[in-house]
Specification:
- The protein has 145 residues and is an alpha+beta fold.
- Helices cover 22% and strands 32% of the residues.
- It has two domains: 85 residues, no CATH class; 60 residues, no CATH class.
- It has three helices and nine strands.
- Strands 1, 2, 3, 4 and 5 form a five-stranded antiparallel sheet that branches. Strands 6, 7, 8 and 9 form a four-stranded antiparallel sheet that branches.
- A hairpin with a 4-residue loop joins strand 3 and strand 4.
- The longest helix has 19 residues.
- The radius of gyration is 16 Å and the shape is globular.
- It starts with 6 loop residues before the first strand and ends with a strand.
């Protein structure tokens, strides 16, 4: 059962930082790779496939879920990692932390459990919404009394 909670992801690596122009160079390269991979995907997904998070020191990583058939030769040099399954509360605003405080959950602050985000992209989607939407995923666990 535990293996069902693990996801195969391709990582942009930690050479992304929030404070440098290199951030845009790396994300641009990673974006090009996963747009090409997305054309080859065989399955259908109704949930986000890519997530971004930043460590406290500013290092950031972009992850993209891939199908089981993908190997390192398909990733243009990007590393395939095993992403541990977790439980996340999801919202479009940071009011989610107030919701957590009043729920039966608490923040899951173990190492490697980062708040992540997913940007909903696409000109038609943005026009339809009238704005660009960023979903926030906060790691949670059942509250311990």
């Amino acid at each position: 059962m535990a293996d069902l909670l693990k996801i195969k992801e391709v990582s942009s690596r930690y050479d992304v930082t929030a404070r440098t122009l290199r951030y845009y160079e790396v994300l641009g390269s990673f974006d090009i790779w996963f747009c090409e991979y997305d054309k080859m995907r065989k399955g259908i997904s109704f949930s986000p496939l890519d997530f971004m998070f930043f460590e406290e020191d500013g290092r950031g990583m972009w992850l993209y879920a891939v199908e089981d058939w993908v190997t390192e030769k398909d990733t243009n040099g990007y590393e395939i990692i095993e992403f541990e399954g977790r439980l996340y509360a999801n919202a479009v605003s940071m009011g989610i932390k107030q919701w957590i405080d009043n729920s039966g959950f608490e923040l899951d602050e173990r190492e490697g459990h980062r708040t992540m985000c997913h940007m909903i992209v696409g000109e038609k989607m943005n026009r339809g919404l009238g704005y660009k939407q960023l979903d926030i995923f906060v790691p949670i666990k059942l509250r311990t009394e």
